[in-house]
Amino acid sequence: MMLVFPAERLVFLCTPKCGSTSVEEAYAPYASVVLGGHPKLKHVDLSGYESGFAPLTGKDLGSLETVCLIRDPLEHLRSLYRYLCRRTIQDRKRSQRGRRFEDFVEDFLSVDPSWKMKTQLEFVQEETSQVGVNRIFALDHLDRFVDFMNERLGVRGSRPALNASAPASTSITSGLEAALRCRLAPDFALHEAVLRADGSWENPLRKFESRSAPKKGSTAAMAANRHRLRAKAIGSKADG
Length: 240
Fold this sequence. Notes:
Oligomer: single chain
Largest sheet: 6 strands, mixed
Order of helices and strands: EEHEHHHEHHHEHHHEH
Distance between the termini: 21 Å
């Protein structure tokens, strides 16, 4: 889910297979806007957010800081493969039941036109192909993300318990892994940069000046409250 916290000037972008469901369960109750349901809405990437959603909040609140989680690119593919092996996956083009992980990787490397998956790097890029997310956390150091969110929101959320698909063999030959690492070299470089930053990387090209939550009665606070009311109204209509 994409979680929007207008008063705290924060947006969480939900990178696929990076603990998003667990983060939603931990922090959605504090969000003014929770966007999800259809996969295209649940996993809105940075370019989609900036072109389709940022203008809706920018007029009243100004820019919001974007944050997300990423993980080791190979482990990311392994997690996605295990998920697509589930019996609940009805899309035959995407289902990996009965197929090896190596088959899945070979399809990814061949850029099979029947199924296109964005890489984590593509998820965090703006329209100019530069990394545009303000702050990126490593799933490997989830505690850093939790500390950031708790401090920013002024809550005491506990460390989310990560969901896991059923075990499945994800062995891979050294040759195929080398080809994958070559194909995803920029993704591995980004993940390593986040790890070098102790799991919390701030974009030097998009530094964001954090501000405390606006005081009750201020223009920003009233704007944030309007967004909360709109979100509740939309949610009520959807429930009905």
